[in-house]
Inverse folding.
């Protein structure tokens, strides 16, 4: 009997009616002969409502207590899902993250999973029951306190449990049909990607694709756990995220296909750009700057340093970071201004990032040129550029994001349902 | 350093503002030099709302899952109380029933506490923190599943923890000033009882006084834990529930007083009366009847059997039970009608019970006569009578309850602030 892990997000369990529908789908999977473990998020906006309540009581609630509070959300949804399944005549047992053996470090609010010991889940499955597990939460190995995993935590719970239990697949149910070549709200002709490698999915997620979180994909890649991202509102196939190996094509439902050069176009409007102007061009100045910023626990994304002007011996360093960290970063930098001796700081939160992702660009040097040409043709000015082996990202004016995404998507013919991008594989363009 | 356990009910933590006020009181107790353990109920109507949600999902939710669901309520309130305390500059750590070591049997929805192992609470106190504990819940010793204790469960949690930790007192905070000689909504001149024995309080609770639950008082009596019932909205002394020993008077704040004969008048409108008409007067018929009823897990309160009529050799047996169990009892009895051969069943849910409670009535035989005379003078017809050593209860028409309570309260001069009832102790009436 094969084991399937299914994860349902907050919108899939938003009210009693949705929960009953989710229960139907879970029971159908059980009746099809699978062992089923289900990971659930909190209902709809529960988590936000609890955070609001916490803020009313204490402006800066202790992390331990905030985690204790927020984990009530999944506790409610998991018990209700288990009840709805029982009402359909199947036994279901719900488990908190702690009961399910999700062991984490003790970083409240952003804990990392360090071990999964799913003995009680295995016991419930062996007894013929469906196991329902609270996503997003675990228990600290050292303090035994309840922890939460941070954004995307429920997806990570699902993949981690799937890996620990040796599941056949981890199904992530969401309100869209899978991962698309671009955001369909911007590019209506964007198409569902039937299959994508972990590596490409990581780049897509890091570049702003919201369907799957980075950590969950990282976890899946580490353990080689296939993820199937699909809609909880239809029976259609979604997107398979798997190793890029011939052997894995059978899990796609028989759709063996040539690997496309380009997976898709991602965009991100959540970042801001900081420019440190007039940094003396000496060894160690960049290190001081980024030590100061990372000391404020801020994650930096892109970094660009211009060639220094010969006349002044000074250079500009720009970097992007989450908008929410903007003020903290500026404060940290102002503190080191006397020491570093840079001239000024500039802050721009009206930027957007547009990224093209595809494993095939490794062996196709023409991709960058085509990407920049598409942006130029669309009249989009580029402010920053960064690349990885399988990704090109540019920072543009926020107002240009839609135009940039659409023109790049068109230039690479990603909206062609026959997958025109595949043609490039043979032409070497 | 003495240890105080405080319990706050749902109305004391109904919203963010109330929670902040409760935090002030807790911190004041800590600042006065006590170690403090706080037991909280779920906020306001949370438990009822969760039950409603469960009923929408499944008409008959499994007990295990219902308990998992309901315990989310205290999880929310305890985390918020801990945050509010932290906001006042004191460390507070919240603990679920399971984390606090509240070990129960596995009877979901009505679990009994079988052990309390408060190691983590002791640890938090030793570290200088205030411990906040979720009331109403525990963990099953055998299955490790989360359980709830049923009605009044948070009071029981508080007393159990107080006993296990060797607390000086268990303070039960509520929205009234203590235990009264009668319900002040019926008898506006009812006065607060400054001190009452466990035994009397048990009878008061069993007779419908809602301030404290039977189980909590039973637990306190077993462990000799003084309870102080008081209002969370004032600093006034409430009612001390203690052993009836001279040594305990010092905990009353020095109010040494002669023991009153009568504690108070309690009433209860939650019961119904079943009469089994025409039961053959043979050995074992009553046993069959009550075996059938208790087999349906129904708790019976009063039982009255008339002398059988010589002509027919048949008798009537009446008993009272919670209204909510009425239909189940009738069904159970109908099933055994052929076997027992009684004539018919009568059901009356328009009854009320009025009880007079007082340890002093043991040595004062005139109390019953005075009680019945008061009812007769008020024109109240008595349907059933039952007595214990320190209580007389009558069943009357529901519409007569208020009149009966007021007239008995007046007859025993319970509203006299000088405690006229005490006078009887010497007169032997």
């Amino acid at each position: 009997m094969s084991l399937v892990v299914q994860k349902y997000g907050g919108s899939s369990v938003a009210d009693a009616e949705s929960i009953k529908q989710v229960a139907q789908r879970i029971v159908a999977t059980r009746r099809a002969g699978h062992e089923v473990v289900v990971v659930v998020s909190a209902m709809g906006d529960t988590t936000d409502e609890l955070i609001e309540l916490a803020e009313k009581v204490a402006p800066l609630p202790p992390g331990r207590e905030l985690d204790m509070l927020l984990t009530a959300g999944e506790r409610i949804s998991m018990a209700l899902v288990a009840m709805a399944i029982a009402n359909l005549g199947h036994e279901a047992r719900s488990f908190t993250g702690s009961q399910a053996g999700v062991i984490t470090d003790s970083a409240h609010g952003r804990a990392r999973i360090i071990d999964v010991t799913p003995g009680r889940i295995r016991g419930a499955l062996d007894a013929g029951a469906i196991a329902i597990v609270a996503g997003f939460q675990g228990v600290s190995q050292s303090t035994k306190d309840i922890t939460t995993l941070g954004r995307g935590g429920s997806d990570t719970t699902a993949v981690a449990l799937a890996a620990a239990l040796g599941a056949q697949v981890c199904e992530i149910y969401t309100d869209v049909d899978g991962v698309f070549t671009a955001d369909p709200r911007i590019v209506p002709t964007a198409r569902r990607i039937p299959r994508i490698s972990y590596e490409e999915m990581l780049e897509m997620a890091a570049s702003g694709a919201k369907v799957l979180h980075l950590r969950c994909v990282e976890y899946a890649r580490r353990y080689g756990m296939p993820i199937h991202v699909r809609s909880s509102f239809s029976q259609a196939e979604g997107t398979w995220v798997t190793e890029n190996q011939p052997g894995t094509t059978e899990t796609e439902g028989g759709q063996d296909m040539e690997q496309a050069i380009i997976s898709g176009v991602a965009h991100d409007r959540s970042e801001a750009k900081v420019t440190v102007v007039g940094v003396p061009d000496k060894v160690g100045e960049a290190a001081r700057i980024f030590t100061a910023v990372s000391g404020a626990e801020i994650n930096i994304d892109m970094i660009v340093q211009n060639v220094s002007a010969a006349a002044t011996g000074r250079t500009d360093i720009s970097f992007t970071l989450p908008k929410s960290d903007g003020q903290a970063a500026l404060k940290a930098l102002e503190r080191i201004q006397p020491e570093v001796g840079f001239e000024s700081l500039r802050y721009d939160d009206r930027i957007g990032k547009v990224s093209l992702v595809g494993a095939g660009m490794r062996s196709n040097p023409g991709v960058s040129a085509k990407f920049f040409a598409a942006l130029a043709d669309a009249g989009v000015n580029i402010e920053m550029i960064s690349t990885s082996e399988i990704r090109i990202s540019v920072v543009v004016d926020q107002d240009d994001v839609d135009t940039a995404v659409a023109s790049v998507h068109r230039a690479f013919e990603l909206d062609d349902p026959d997958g025109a991008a595949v043609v490039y594989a043979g032409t070497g363009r």
